[in-house]
Amino acid sequence: MRILVTGGAGFIGSNFARHLARARPDWEVVVFDKLTYAGRRENLADLESRPGFLFVKGDIADPRAVAEVLPGCDYAVNFAAETHVDRSLYDAGGFIMTDVYGTFVLLEAARRAPGLKLFVQISTDEVYGSVASGSSTEADPLMPRNPYSASKAGADRLAYSYWATYGVPVIVTRASNNYGPYQFPEKVIPLFVTHALDDVPLPLYGDGLNVRDWLYVDDHCRALDLLLEEGAPGETYNIGGGNEVSNIDLTRRILGLLGKPETLVRRVADRPGHDRRYSLDCTRLRALGWSPRVPFEEGLRATVEWYRANEAWWRPLKEDSPAFREHYRRHYEG
Ligand code: NAD
Ligand code: TYD
Would the pTM count as exceeding 0.85? Predict the structure, then answer.
């Protein structure tokens, strides 16, 4: 089997490529990635010498580049996206270009690839918008409220339309917030862990009571692997960690694990359009036999330890990468 992993040099994609190396050692894995600020070749360093592993640098919005890699694959999993909500507040165009148009380019190629068994579009729980009470089922209306989630919702339904219209074997997955190793240190958990290690104040938005449902990245990878075999084309699957935690609670846990004082918390202005809460009903996926295995306390401890042990990975990203510095200055100090 050959599987195309677009966006495979990013956080979840690189963990998924590593999962495949373990769980499906005889598969060929082709990682296709533009290597934006968030994509790092070194995230895949331990896989590069593996037989059957291939890295191709390219843009999913480039039809010619996509036509070189997608035909001949049995599976395609599209992780490639601009993913940071805060960046989407300043540059919605980049999100529409990659997340919507890039997905369209991949779907067009998928339509012309008769051997393709499954195209997995990685969507997000953020497409449901803010959930005041209860949990979102796959049948709920989509109500995205920021340019990132709106772009993802566009791609989510575009992927479905290629199933409904052309019979492309598409499934859509909507995962909750992931955490674990190799997450770019701009998202809240790695930002707060690495700031706390350096005794830098942690910028907590608004009242800190926004709730996210945290999913350990390995549990996400196991769900995706299961869906490669058991997912029904045309279906959408929620993938939630079952760990709804407020941001202030999360922040306190991180500080506790690192033995740092709560005085490091700095309340800052809220994110515009900040969704209050996400919550997923995962009955459909659980019926296939999946449930998350990593308790939040254990996953958070392992994640904090990974960042503590891998300073050589994150420090250059925070200190030497113009992308991080420019975003930080514009967003937090502007
Ligand atoms: P990430 O930002 O860490 O990685 C994104 C990857 O996509 C990077 O390697 C980047 O170089 C690549 N990329 C960006 N634009 C590209 C393009 N035009 N062509 C090819 N490659 C491109 O993101 P992540 O957190 O790993 O998220 C992966 C996917 O999962 C995204 O689709 C995201 O919307 C979705 N998702 C993420 C979360 C989360 O909590 N991180 C939750 C639910 C869904
Ligand atoms: P983030 O990691 O950006 O993921 P998302 O917006 O996709 O859920 O943010 C997670 C939560 O943490 C979200 O409610 C916003 C909050 N947050 C802060 O309070 N401060 C920060 O500096 C960041 C980046 C996020």
Answer: yes
